[in-house]
C-alpha cells in the first residue's frame, strides 16, 4: 500500500490579501479523497494558518513580527481545520489536527508519541492534518516554511512518496517569474550546487520558503529514502497523476532506503557540538566505502566536545560531509589527528579506535 505525504503551501490556499479560499480547500479535499479511494494512505501537511487568520485580526498585510504571526496562526489554524473537516467530511473522511515543532522531533519520546498517533489515525482511515505549532515555536527554531516539516514527516512515517504542491509546475533553472528564459527540470537524481543556485525565494507575499526550501526539503526526503515531487495541482486528477509519476512538476528520485529513527535523529534533529575536517581519502571512505572515520584522516578540529557528542564532518573544501557520534573528546582528537592506529594506541586509551563508527554516522553530502 502506498503512503503519501502531501504538502500544500499558503499560496495554494489563500490569496495575497489573506483569507482562506474555501473553494481551493474543497478542491484539494476532492483530490485527496480520489487518491485515498485508490487505497493510498494520505497524510496532509498544510500551511495557511497565518494567511487565513491575519485579516480576521485586522492586520492589512501578512504580519512580520513573531507574536503577530503567532496570533494570526492561532485564529487561522481553527479556520483552516474547520474548512478541511467540512471538506473531507463531504467525502465521508475524518480529519485530525496534529501540530508539531522542531523541538518535538529532537525528543525521542515526543516524536514516538506523534508517530503512534499518526499510525492509529491512518489505521482508522482518518487523515492526519499537520502544521507547525506556531504558538510555541520560537523564531530560531521554527521550520518557518512547512516544506522542511513535510520532508521530516515523510521520513518519520517512512512514506512511499512526498508531494509538495505549489504555484509553479516544478523546479526551473531560475525563478520563472523573473527569468523568462528559465527551463523546467523534469527529473532530479542528485541535488547539486547548480540546482540549488537556481532555486530562489518565494514569489508571493503569503508564501515563505520559495523554491529553495522545496529543493532543500526534497533533499531531506531523498536522504531518508523518500522520492519527492514538487509541482502544480490545479485540475481534477492532477494529484493522482502526480502520485502515478506523470504530474505537472519535477520528480526527485532516490535510490536510498528508508532511514532508521536513530539515523533520522542523527542527521536532522541532533545538535552538533563541534566539527572535524577530514582529508579526501577519509571523505571517500565515509561516503562511498561504508567505512568508519579513523584518526589518520582527520586534518583539523573545531569546538570543545566530549566523547558521545554529535559532531559534523567537513571536507577540505569546507563542505558538510555528514554527522556522527564521536568517540573522542576534542582535545584527544587534536593529540592524535593524522596518526595511524598503532601510533594512536601507543599515545592514548580510548574505548573505540574509530573517531566515528559507521553505525553512528550519516552521510549528508
Ligand atoms: N528555480 C525556480 N523554479 C520555480 N520556482 C521558483 C524558482 N525560484 C524561485 N521560485 C519561486 O518559488 C515560488 C513557490 O514558493 P512559495 O511562494 O514559497 O510557495 P508555497 O506557498 O507553495 O510554499 C514560485 O512561485 C516561484 O516564483
Ligand atoms: N505554519 C505557517 C506556515 C508558514 C508558511 O507560509 O509556509 P509555506 O506557505 O509553506 O511557505 C502557517 O500555517 O501559516
Automatic annotation (TrEMBL):
Question: According to its UniProt record, which reaction does this protein catalyse?
Answer: L-glutamate + ATP = L-glutamyl 5-phosphate + ADP
Report residues binding substrate.
Answer: 47, 134, 146
Q: Which UniProt keywords apply?
A: Amino-acid biosynthesis, ATP-binding, Cytoplasm, Kinase, Nucleotide-binding, Proline biosynthesis, Transferase
Which residue windows are transmembrane per the record?
none
Keyword Coiled coil assigned to the entry: answer is no
Q: What is its EC number?
A: 2.7.2.11
- Subcellular location(s) per record: Cytoplasm
Name of this chain's protein: Glutamate 5-kinase
Query: What does the record give as the organism's lineage?
Result: Bacteria, Bacillati, Bacillota, Bacilli, Bacillales
Ligand binding (ATP): 7, 166-167, 208-214
Query: Which is an annotated GO molecular function term of this record?
Result: glutamate 5-kinase activity
Q: Which organism is it from?
A: Paenibacillus selenitireducens
Amino acid at each position: 500500500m502506498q503512503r503519501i505525504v502531501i504538502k500544500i503551501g499558503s499560496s495554494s490556499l489563500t490569496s495575497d490579501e489573506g483569507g482562506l479560499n474555501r473553494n481551493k480547500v474543497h478542491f484539494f479535499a476532492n483530490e485527496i479523497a480520489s487518491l485515498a479511494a485508490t487505497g493510498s494512505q494520505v497524510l496532509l501537511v498544510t500551511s495557511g494558518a497565518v494567511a487565513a487568520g491575519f485579516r480576521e485580526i485586522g492586520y492589512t498585510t501578512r504580519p512580520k513580527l513573531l507574536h503577530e504571526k503567532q496570533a494570526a496562526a492561532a485564529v487561522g489554524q481553527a479556520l483552516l481545520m474547520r474548512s478541511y473537516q467540512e471538506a473531507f467530511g463531504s467525502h465521508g473522511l475524518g480529519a485530525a489536527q496534529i501540530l508539531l515543532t522542531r523541538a518535538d522531533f529532537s525528543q525521542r519520546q515526543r516524536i514516538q508519541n506523534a508517530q503512534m498517533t499518526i499510525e492509529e489515525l491512518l489505521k482508522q482511515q482518518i487523515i492526519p492534518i499537520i502544521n507547525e505549532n506556531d504558538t510555541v515555536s520560537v523564531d530560531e527554531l521554527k521550520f518557518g516554511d512547512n516544506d522542511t516539516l513535510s520532508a521530516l514527516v515523510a521520513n518519520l512515517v517512512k512514506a512511499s512518496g512526498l508531494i509538495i504542491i505549489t504555484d509553479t509546475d516544478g523546479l526551473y533553472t531560475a525563478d520563472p517569474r523573473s527569468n523568462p528564459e528559465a527551463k523546467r527540470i523534469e527529473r532530479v537524481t542528485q541535488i547539486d550546487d547548480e540546482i540549488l543556485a537556481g532555486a530562489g525565494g518565494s514569489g508571493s507575499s503569503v508564501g515563505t520558503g520559495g523554491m529553495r526550501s522545496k529543493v532543500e526539503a526534497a533533499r531531506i526526503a531523498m536522504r531518508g529514502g523518500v522520492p519527492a515531487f514538487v509541482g502544480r495541482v490545479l485540475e481534477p486528477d492532477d494529484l493522482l497523476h502526480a502520485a502515478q509519476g506523470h504530474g505537472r512538476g519535477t520528480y526527485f528520485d532516490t535510490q536510498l532506503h528508508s532511514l532508521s529513527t536513530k539515523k533520522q535523529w542523527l542527521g536532522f534533529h541532533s545538535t552538533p557540538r563541534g566539527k572535524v575536517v577530514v582529508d579526501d581519502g577519509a571523505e571517500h571512505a565515509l561516503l562511498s566505502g561504508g567505512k568508519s572515520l579513523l584518526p589518520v584522516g582527520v586534518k583539523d578540529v573545531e569546538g570543545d566536545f566530549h566523547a558521545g557528542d554529535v559532531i559534523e564532518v567537513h571536507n577540505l573544501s569546507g563542505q558538510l560531509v555528514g554527522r556522527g557520534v564521536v568517540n573522542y573528546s576534542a582535545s584527544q582528537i587534536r593529540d592524535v589527528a593524522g596518526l595511524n592506529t598503532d601510533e594512536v594506541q601507543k599515545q592514548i586509551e580510548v574505548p573505540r579506535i574509530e573517531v566515528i563508527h559507521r553505525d553512528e554516522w550519516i552521510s549528508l553530502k
